[in-house]
Amino acid sequence: MSQLRLVGDQPDDGRHGPPDSGTGHRPDERRAGVLGLPVVYQAHRPELVSGPEVDTLRRHTAWYGRPDPGTGTGTGPSGDLVAELDAVALAGRGGAHFAVARKWRSTASRDGGVVVANGAEGEPASAKDAALLQHRPHLVLDGLACAAAAVGATRTVLWLHEGASASHSAVSRALTERRSAGLRERVEVVTGPEHYLSGESSAVVRALSDGPALPAFRRVPATVSGIGGEPTLVHNVETLARVALVARGGRDGYRDTTLVTVVAEGRRTVLEVDPRSTVEQVVAVGGVAPQAVLLGGYGGTWLPWTAAAQLPLHHQALRDAGAGLGAGVVVPLPADACGVVETAGVLDYLARSSARQCGPCLFGLRAIADQLLELAQGEGGRGNLRRLRTFAAEVEGRGGCHHPDGAVRLLLSAVTTFEADLSAHSRHGRCLHRDDPFAAPVVLPVPALAGAR
Amino acid sequence: MTVARLRVDPVACDGIGMCAHVAPRLVGVDSWGFPIVDTALPKDRDLRHAEAAVASCPRGALFIEPGRPDGH
């Protein structure tokens, strides 16, 4: 992983602690997340995740510098945080990569309002939000305070999955410390059901308006009228941690990095990477190259390894290549695994994760998953491929949220990336990789849907 | 300049299908009987048909999104 250490431009002003030594890893292995897979945190950039293993407020302040006394907020050197966020082109890290400054401008003219730090990490493969909350709770809380101050919000909420006990206790500890230190802030920690869509932003707004934690169809954006009719900002926790960094150093002090979760060999590894790092550098598999890589998340995009290896892990660069950074999930598919089988398993999970509110999602995702499962099991034919294309076209863009769009994106990228596999499955009823595809362990973890309806 | 569009709130829609009967030219139906609706309404006649479809929906799921003068 030494090629990952693209840290040369890091200003060594002592504020960030000692530079990485040796391998550059500070592995801190623990079990977390819905899957109980081991998660390894490896910090390659000192902006967010490296430094002290777990923040106390004292260490946090020593490491990142002191925010405005008494509030935990800051506006950057210019005094105009929105302008600073604009200057660094900060984009949201929940998956959509929408410009933060633009989102704030659509709320900033209003009085009152709510800011929600969204730590409900629904992506089964992702662990970066949990890593951040457990290691840097103060940075997230600072960002929440900064956002609330900037848009004039009077209420701040942290939204978590109810099973996220490690994150919950890290944040509770941090809040207690902040109260003892005299910070004048009030953050409500609210938990919701642990399913794929409970972190979708309209679901968060609906849940915090005493509704179910399910996506809503909104004719008016939440930034205009959200929780209880108040203008509402919902930000991923990583986005808010970045806001806190910009609020301290402004545009000149900010170094853009990305938290990604790499899933390989049954482990999720959270890495903080420079935007110039390539997929190949981040995956860093020894020996045989993978055949393909899944980028973004389960509603993300497969790319053949040859197309993906040299791409930088930057949202715009990936978007230009027909993919996207999404929630920062990177899953290499080993050469001996079957992309059809893997994708079918994930599409089945996505179908089961439907909020069951919109017909095209409820029926369409099930139909898509069933067609692909048949092919995966060697029971389908070329008609399955034709029906998959028809269903994909019918489903896309027709949900109240983007859940079905993500499933269609995954499907269509699989059809392109695994063309040879699909051909073998559909024409000859056989798998290029396995005699009995479903006897093999799958690469992409799919959780049991206990909490998911 | 964008024109008005006939749209559907897919959460409210139960796929009853009245809209497709009332305004078949504006409303398609998918493999599962749910309306495919995202239709531009450039003419007065389209708008009248769309209004009839909106009025026919037992779930109140259809609506007309007004056109915007400046694109958007």
CA radius of gyration of chain B is 12 Å
Number of strands of chain B: 5
The CATH level-2 architecture of chain B is identified as 2-Layer Sandwich
Assigned CATH class of the largest domain in chain A: Alpha Beta
Please give the radius of gyration of chain A in angstroms.
22 Å
- Write down the secondary-structure element order of chain A: EEHHHEHHEHEHEHEEHEEHHEHHHHH
Please tell me the CATH architecture of the largest domain in chain A by its name: 3-Layer(aba) Sandwich
Mean pLDDT of chain B: 93
How would you describe what is shown here?
The complex is a heterodimer of chains A (453) and B (72). Chain A has 453 residues and is α/β, with parallel strands linked by helices. Chain A folds into two domains: 44-253, Rossmann fold (3-Layer(aba) Sandwich), CATH 3.40.50; 262-439, NADH-ubiquinone oxidoreductase 51kDa subunit, iron-sulphur binding domain (de novo design (two linked rop proteins)). Helices cover 38% and strands 13% of the residues of chain A. Chain A is built from 16 helices and eleven strands. A seven-stranded mixed sheet of chain A has the order 1-2-8-7-11-9-10. In chain A, strands 5-4-3-6 form a four-stranded parallel sheet, with helices on both faces. Chain A is globular. Chain A starts with 27 loop residues before the first strand and ends in a 25-residue tail after the last helix. Chain B has two helices and five strands. The model of chain B has no long low-confidence stretch (mean pLDDT 93). Chain B has helices spanning 18-22, 44-56, and strands spanning 5-8, 28-29, 35-36, 38-40, 62-65. Helix content of chain B is 25%, strand content 21%. Chain B has 72 residues and is an alpha+beta fold. Chain B has one domain (5-65): Alpha-Beta Plaits (2-Layer Sandwich), CATH 3.30.70. The chains are: A alpha/beta (453), B alpha+beta (72). The interface between A and B is medium-sized, with 19 and 15 residues.
